## 1
Amino acid sequence: MKLYVSLTSPFARKVRVALEEKHLADRIETVLVDPWNDDGTLAAVNPLLQVPTLARDDGLAITNSDTIMNWLDRAYPEPGLWPQDPDARFRAEAVAALAQTVIEYAVFLVIESRRPESQRSAHMIERRRQGIVDTAAALNDGFHASQEQFDLDSIGVACALAYVDFRHPQLDWRSRAPKLDAWMKWALQRPSMKATAPPA
């Protein structure tokens, strides 16, 4: 199998962290691509030019980070990325969905910043910035912030906030989320997070 990634993509990082946590990183070939300047490598497996894309040995290409992680957990159940209890799993998926939207908002801000200033939407920029900070505040109370587990929701939150810090260090989410800030200091020290950190 081959996993097509960009080292700065937070979507790809989620899958790369999952592979590290499931001890599969050495079993799947990583192919570095540039979705914005593709030489045809990524288009050959995903015409949408999105990372991550997991190309299975049977030719099936799986896209979307959460879909890839779901398949990985079914194909390689141990250690699992989802809690076994149905209610706990649903709660983890709810938090993971919030984290995914934080990533989407942060990526939007990056893309918008690359447009000519006259074409940018100040309203949408501010809405997304505020949404990121407000979601961090909500996660401060609504996320377990456990140091005993690192499941789907933990991976999502860690990768989302790490990307915000990477691309938007001016966004002060920590002042409204002190518990989450303390948890992030712990999460960033996990081997899986260190191994997948974007290049400086």
## 2
Amino acid sequence: MIGVLPDLPPNVAGFRASGEVTKDDFEKVLFPEIKKHVALSGKLNFVFYVDTPLKNFSMGAWIRDVWLGIRQFASWRKIAIISDVEKIRNFTDNISFLLPGVYKGFPVAELQNAIRWAATEEQEPEDQVSPHIEQLLPPQTKGKSTMITAQVMAGKETDARFIFERATGRLLDVNEWTDHCGALSAGFQLTDDEGKPLMGRAAVGDYIRIDLPGPATGEGKGYDWVRIEKIEQPAAPDPNTGGIALMQVRPCANPQLKDTNTIAHFLEDSATSTFIIERDGRKVSATVYGRNEVPNTTYPGTGDKVRNAVVGTLGAIGLTRIQWKALVEGLLEKE
């Protein structure tokens, strides 16, 4: 059965699954309660305490009724799944690439932490680009723009300088991005202008081969490709005011194919991703600014057109956002 968790913050819907769980539990308890929350606030943070072995879910209930069933709600923000079953927590942590919202698994002992996490509202920063950053970005002329950011506040400015320098090094070490992003991340490989793997720090003119989860491109030989067109690093950051490090990439043709200019990426080459590490006193931020994001459906073959239309659209509103959110957080995290 599924019951409603009591005494939750008003912006959180919470449930506990115990004993035998069937499709009726979702249709008669869970979904109606969720609809009430969405009707009141227009968005939803969700806590699901799995206090029963997975075998007690009826056939198909776990995948069909929990994970696929939530597709009908467009306003998912945070989803916390609480269970002492490690497989359930790992599945929860990794499902964000496929479904709307941000997912996180918690052990039962951290139930209250899970509720606090789900209840915490994060500011949406898309329209709040500072003037000094705006001048570093390409003008927004078509398609979508995105802004994905993370920040930390250091105890001392010396600590902030260390975090800034470490994050800058991580940004330029493209081959380590996958490790910073975590499980089910895209794979990233720095290459030269012939598509051969490179080691070391990125430089202007290098390429990045991206292995996205899901369908691959034909033109990119299984990968999406971008070219690094801009890198800026402060030679000596002001110890009092901070500094900015920047790298900008743009979709490009597969450098392994010298006889084509066809863009091997799910976005057109009007799109850019600008990665900026900034220190302002004790605050250090890592942000990805996407500009002019338009799905690349003009020139690829039929198969790639369909793939790019789907991935490009989802990327602008979900997949890319989740991927870059994991990266900017990883760039700032401790070892």
